[in-house]
């Protein structure tokens, strides 16, 4: 299966999970796994949330920012991989001048 990504055809999600501004993303869910490519603009964020029933892996494609993972700040840059295991919480913030672009996978099993 091929997942087509076109940065000119992304959906806009205002205040994603209670975050600031919005994210633009292409998402896919097949009932077992959820994955997405997301863009967070300058000053935008994904709101803090707990992974109660699943985990999440995030790979930074470009840009910079940070996550707050269980209360600890972790810097993000191109090539960073952030992992949030089941039962933990995180938020992701873009505090730089260019979009923070990432690929995320959330297994729903």
Automatic annotation (TrEMBL):
<feature type="domain" description="Cupin type-2">
    <location>
        <begin position="39"/>
        <end position="105"/>
    </location>
</feature>
<keyword id="KW-0479">Metal-binding</keyword>
<protein>
    <submittedName>
        <fullName>Cupin domain-containing protein</fullName>
    </submittedName>
</protein>
<dbReference type="Pfam" id="PF07883">
    <property type="entry name" value="Cupin_2"/>
</dbReference>
<dbReference type="InterPro" id="IPR011051">
    <property type="entry name" value="RmlC_Cupin_sf"/>
</dbReference>
<dbReference type="InterPro" id="IPR051610">
    <property type="entry name" value="GPI/OXD"/>
</dbReference>
<dbReference type="GO" id="GO:0046872">
    <property type="term" value="F:metal ion binding"/>
</dbReference>
<dbReference type="InterPro" id="IPR014710">
    <property type="entry name" value="RmlC-like_jellyroll"/>
</dbReference>
<dbReference type="InterPro" id="IPR013096">
    <property type="entry name" value="Cupin_2"/>
</dbReference>
């Amino acid at each position: 299966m091929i997942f087509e990504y076109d940065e000119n055809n992304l959906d806009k999600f205002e205040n994603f999970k209670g975050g600031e501004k919005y994210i633009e993303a292409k998402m896919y869910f097949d009932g077992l796994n959820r994955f997405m490519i997301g863009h967070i603009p300058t000053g935008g964020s994904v709101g803090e949330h707990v992974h109660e029933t699943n985990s999440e892996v995030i790979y930074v494609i470009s840009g910079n920012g940070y996550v707050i993972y269980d209360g600890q700040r972790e810097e993000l840059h191109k090539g960073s991989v952030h992992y949030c295991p089941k039962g933990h919480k995180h938020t992701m913030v873009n505090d730089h001048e260019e979009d923070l672009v990432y690929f995320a996978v959330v297994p729903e099993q």
